[in-house]
Amino acid sequence: MRCTIKDLFIYPIKSTRGIRLDHSNVQECGLAFDRHFVVTDSSGKFITGRSKAKMVLITTELSTIGIRLNAPGMNTLTLSYLSFSNDYHPVKVWQDELKGQHCSADADTWLSEYLGTDCRLYYFGPNSVRHVANTAHPVSFADGYPLLLLSRASLQDLNRRCPDLVSMQQFRPNIVVEGCAAFAEDSWHKIRIGDVEFLVSKPCSRCIFTTVDPNSATRHQLKEPLATLSEYRRGNDGQIYFGQNIIPLNSGHIKVDDEVEVLAVQATMF
């Protein structure tokens, strides 16, 4: 069976609701505008849906001049790129420290009111620099890798085992593929989509964020799907893995229905 792209998603602000796309430019640090914004506390430490589940209810709209934010109970916030501050401040994403471009006091106030804590909004600006660990590959505010790939068959396999239905959105992939066997992506080492080649770098370890319902921002009381995944997707290091982190090896353009060509394979941990 032919393996193709089923869906493409970007998440302009880390941990907010994704935007489904028909096509996207692939840049060194991933899909265009994916996780180019991050919310932090007053010290610059990143804030995500792991601690603030309400973030999944923030929706974003991109335009050529800026970004628009909406959330339940909040007025629309419109930000222009030209109005962003010229100030760069330290931002910490996991163990990485980098400089983020401060967006505006209005953005800080809006996010602080919605999330109920002192917040800052930063942009991955021209002077922001970050790399995938132990490599020269750039990455923006994503957890650690430019893109996440997951197959529909893998999700279907999970839903056959899990007592409650799990949505693809709970795993926040960038590229969803169909037409392959469940967990076929575990064995891929190098793939080509359109005119872009990708290194399949590392399985993606999953956390409590996957238990947040993307439509209600509530956490599953029995910690699903992590509880089910732990029964058959736990590595020797104790981490639970689902999906693959991938790194683009060149720039280009990809779109829904593009074929996924497997160029090289590798041994799997499962």
UniProtKB/TrEMBL annotation:
<dbReference type="Pfam" id="PF03473">
    <property type="entry name" value="MOSC"/>
</dbReference>
<dbReference type="GO" id="GO:0030170">
    <property type="term" value="F:pyridoxal phosphate binding"/>
</dbReference>
<dbReference type="InterPro" id="IPR005303">
    <property type="entry name" value="MOCOS_middle"/>
</dbReference>
<dbReference type="InterPro" id="IPR005302">
    <property type="entry name" value="MoCF_Sase_C"/>
</dbReference>
<protein>
    <submittedName>
        <fullName>MOSC domain-containing protein</fullName>
    </submittedName>
</protein>
<dbReference type="GO" id="GO:0003824">
    <property type="term" value="F:catalytic activity"/>
</dbReference>
<feature type="domain" description="MOSC">
    <location>
        <begin position="119"/>
        <end position="263"/>
    </location>
</feature>
<dbReference type="Pfam" id="PF03476">
    <property type="entry name" value="MOSC_N"/>
</dbReference>
<dbReference type="GO" id="GO:0030151">
    <property type="term" value="F:molybdenum ion binding"/>
</dbReference>
<dbReference type="InterPro" id="IPR011037">
    <property type="entry name" value="Pyrv_Knase-like_insert_dom_sf"/>
</dbReference>
